[in-house]
Design brief:
279 residues, mainly alpha, two-stranded antiparallel sheet, 2 strands
């Protein structure tokens, strides 16, 4: 399934240029976050990152609409993204609220017994709560746009697909991780090669200096030239990864959803003779 979806992804990206528009927009926003960080620091960049996450949902919806429709135009993508924006935002907030609520309840429970959360506990919560939740609900956005599901129906549909195709889903997750790592590493190599002279002093750092090295020290080290190169690399990496991963996800969802029958909940009751009556 993963290979078939990847082949369809490549075909769509080569035959539908409009699929690259959301990636270009997200790339510009990601580069803007880096520019704000470079100019104003982490405080304003963090606020802009939150805004970027909200805007990204619009481009996610636009991508899925472009994949779903046969011959979409820019106007169709924009109209569809506007129609599906809040339908995607709502389950996103439900998932985020659920994760935060569990974190808070666990931390409060530990505090009642006099235990302070440490790195080990937070790591356990991350891999024990966040990771399974994200994996189970990963396809909710596809269910909303491609199958016209409502908020909780989309979450349920995602869980149905993941649990019914667990091995195939794990292969898909691994494929996405490999694509992300290969693309990211390629741009990291290009960034390092372009700034080799400015990064050369880092090669002389000892283990203590490397352990204490932060991004705040990196910014003045790379200078203005490094600032421009970093912005370009961030833009290009995001512009490629966003349409590639979203299209791959939608294509895989269409394949796997066709083999997963939704669970129908029957509402009714039995009479005194054991006969079933549906409401």
């Amino acid at each position: 399934m993963s290979l078939a979806a990847l082949r369809e992804t490549i075909d769509l990206l080569t035959t539908r240029p409009l699929l690259w528009l959301p990636g270009l927009a997200c790339g510009l926003l990601a580069a803007l976050i880096w520019i704000v960080f470079y100019v104003s620091g982490a405080f304003f960049a963090g606020r802009l990152l939150f805004f970027f996450l909200l805007v990204a949902i619009f481009f996610v919806a636009a991508t899925y609409v472009s994949i779903r429709d046969e011959k979409p135009t820019v106007a169709d993508m924009a109209r569809g993204a506007k129609d599906y924006y809040f339908r995607l935002l709502t389950p996103t907030l439900v998932i985020a609220f659920g994760i935060v609520l569990v974190f808070v309840l666990v931390i409060l429970t530990l505090a009642m017994f006099g235990t302070q959360p440490d790195y080990g506990i937070l790591t356990f919560l991350t891999f024990g709560i966040v990771l399974p939740t994200v994996m189970l609900t990963y396809f909710y956005d596809c269910a909303v746009v491609l199958e016209e599901r409502k908020v909780f129906e989309s979450l349920q549909r995602s869980m149905e697909i993941v649990t019914a195709n667990l091995f195939s889903i794990l292969l898909f997750y691994i494929s996405c991780f490999i694509i992300f790592c290969v693309t990211g590493f390629a741009f990291f190599v290009a960034w390092t090669a372009a700034l080799a002279d400015r990064l050369e002093p880092i090669t002389h750092y000892n283990d203590t200096q490397l352990a204490a090295f932060t991004i705040d020290q990196l910014v003045p080290l790379i200078g203005y030239e490094g600032f421009i190169v970093t912005a370009v690399c961030i833009f290009a990496a995001v512009a490629i990864l966003v349409p590639l991963l979203l299209t791959y996800k939608a294509c895989y969802f269409k394949i796997v959803a066709g083999t997963t029958v939704p669970i129908q909940q029957m509402i009714g009751e039995y009479d005194s003779k054991g006969r079933w009556y549906k409401y």
